[in-house]
């Protein structure tokens, strides 16, 4: 691929600094225009001059004034004036679509987060609902089975959806790498407060049901753990110091009168 050709500087355009400044101050307040910062050759007989912007709130920005000279002419003509950010300018962060900006915990009462029709985390269920079942005893039996298996929904988790959820849960604060799990006396798989899940995720996760645990009501991995384990026991060094022997007060009023 041939290298792009650099435009040859136009002597008239390069020397037209005053003309560029005059054109700029005709459009903006002269107090917002600072020193000349240089020029760039944009094309044949096209030159852009840069001036510092001194307007409050625009630190690092610069005015860009583009001049063009017609063939065989000795004067330049104003083409464009824009305000552009420099290398150290304060600019807004890159725009991110709202769906990508949403974080866990952002949804509040009344907020809706529609799911895309082609969301790879979901696949169509085998049965969409009772309307698709035959209206007889066989239909009642199928409905009971599908309700028990959780299939009476338009869509269910896909294999990818399950893998994403499992990885997210396992890598998060309810997995084995959490600091509280590293110092736990035992893992959740041996805790009496762990309620097992149903379905494919039940092979690795359960739900904590200990009201005093940090993870109460949350999904935890089997190899997670915390100090509220059902079988946790205090070591002797962790037991409170024993109370001293009690001292009985045997003084009576007669004894006090003798003093």
TrEMBL record:
<protein>
    <submittedName>
        <fullName>DUF3027 domain-containing protein</fullName>
    </submittedName>
</protein>
<dbReference type="Pfam" id="PF11228">
    <property type="entry name" value="DUF3027"/>
</dbReference>
<dbReference type="InterPro" id="IPR021391">
    <property type="entry name" value="DUF3027"/>
</dbReference>
């Amino acid at each position: 691929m041939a290298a792009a050709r650099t435009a040859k500087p136009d002597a008239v355009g390069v020397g037209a600094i005053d003309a560029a400044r005059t054109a700029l101050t005709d459009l903006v307040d002269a107090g917002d225009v600072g020193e000349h910062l240089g020029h760039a050759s944009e094309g044949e007989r096209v030159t852009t001059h840069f001036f510092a912007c001194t307007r409050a709130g625009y630190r690092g920005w610069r005015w860009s004034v583009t001049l063009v000279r017609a063939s065989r002419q000795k004067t330049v003509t104003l083409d464009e004036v824009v305000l552009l950010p420099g290398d150290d300018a304060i600019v807004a962060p890159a725009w991110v679509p709202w769906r990508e900006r949403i974080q866990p915990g952002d949804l509040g009462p009344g907020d809706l987060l529609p799911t895309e029709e082609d969301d790879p985390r979901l696949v169509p269920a085998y049965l969409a609902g009772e309307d698709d079942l035959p209206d007889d005893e066989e239909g009642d039996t199928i409905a009971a089975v599908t309700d028990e298996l959780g299939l009476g929904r338009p869509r269910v988790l896909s294999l990818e959806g399950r893998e994403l959820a499992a990885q997210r849960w396992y890598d998060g604060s309810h997995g084995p790498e959490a600091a509280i799990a590293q110092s736990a006396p035992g893992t959740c798989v041996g805790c009496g407060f762990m309620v097992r899940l149903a379905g494919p995720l039940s092979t690795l996760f359960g739900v904590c049901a200990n009201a005093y645990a940090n993870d109460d009501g949350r999904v935890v991995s089997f190899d997670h753990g915390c100090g509220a384990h059902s079988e946790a026991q205090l070591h002797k060094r962790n037991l409170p110091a024993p109370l001293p022997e009690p001292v009985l007060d045997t003084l009576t009023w007669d004894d006090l009168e003798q003093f």
